[in-house]
Amino acid sequence: MLRALTAVGLVGVGLGLGVPAEAAKIVFSGQGSVDASQGALVRNAAASNGSPFRFTFTLDTTALTFLEGGDQDAFYDLPVTDFSATIGNYAFTLSGAPGFEPLLSISRSFTFFGQPFSEPVLVTTFNFASARSTGSSLETPFATGAGAFGALAINAFFRAENGESGLGLDELKDPRNADRLSFSYTTLDPNTRQRGTILGAYSGSFSTSAVPEPATWAMMLVGLGMVGGAVRYRRRTTTTTYA
């Protein structure tokens, strides 16, 4: 499973949002740039420092399904559509292999935010695994052999008072309110077992397109009928003026 990749550094993307009570499709989009790289693999020119990073995808909040979790983290199945992500000249292609489906994780952690002491945070992470490469230099930002795969991560860190934040979907927040937004891409060469990671920061936002429930549709139709009736009634009404 993709959540197993997070244990070896192939973590996914994290992003916060406000999930509405009604059924809704949410479009996530953001952009940033590459800041650094880590690992033994040699990075190619497709994603050098300063290269742009862009992403967008759509999810239906009603389709998120809880998979497993504990006291410190929770994992959710993440069906997405209209996915697109690029790092410089590299275009990230989603894996279609079973066990590598997109995954949302919500976890409690600690970070420093540049201070000498750590603070409790809630981290939301959207995880995406890539399709295995065939050996082309444009299929991964690193020099690898055929069969290499990777994972993309966009993370949002929110300060959590006393570390009491929950791990439910109601904890997803607007990324514009996050205290830190970052992304990472990691690939693993299946032949050498060497790893390469790209790190960067981004700014992101989301737009919501609510899908009315059946009862809401009925109320809307009744309302439109009443408006239409009022308009017809006014057209039939005549006004008599006395001199």
Structural commentary:
The chain is mainly β. The protein is built from two helices and eleven strands, in the order αβββββββββββα. It has helices at residues 2-6, 214-236; strands at 24-39, 52-60, 65-69, 73-77, 80-87, 90-91, 103-111, 119-129, 149-159, 180-188, 195-210. A hairpin with a 7-residue loop joins β7 and β8. The longest helix is centred in the last third of the chain and has 23 residues, at 214-236. The chain starts with a helix and ends in a 7-residue tail after the last helix. Residues 7-18 and 230-243 have low confidence and may be disordered.
Topology diagram in text:
Layout: H1 2-6, E1 24-39, E2 52-60, E3 65-69, E4 73-77, E5 80-87, E6 90-91, E7 103-111, E8 119-129, E9 149-159, E10 180-188, E11 195-210, H2 214-236
Antiparallel strand pairs: 1-2, 1-11, 2-5, 3-4, 4-7, 5-6, 7-8, 8-9, 9-10, 10-11
Low-confidence stretches: 7-18, 230-243
Helices, by number, come to 2
Instruction: Give the rounded overall mean pLDDT.
Output: 79
Secondary structure: number of strands: 11
Helix content: 10-25%
Estimated share of beta-strand residues: 35-45%
Biggest beta sheet summary: 11 strands, antiparallel
Span between termini: 86 Å
Output the helix-strand order. Answer: HEEEEEEEEEEEH
- Overall 3D shape: globular
Query: Which structural class should the secondary elements be placed in?
Result: mainly beta
Which value, in Å, is the CA radius of gyration? 23 Å
Strand order of the largest sheet: 3-4-7-8-9-10-11-1-2-5-6
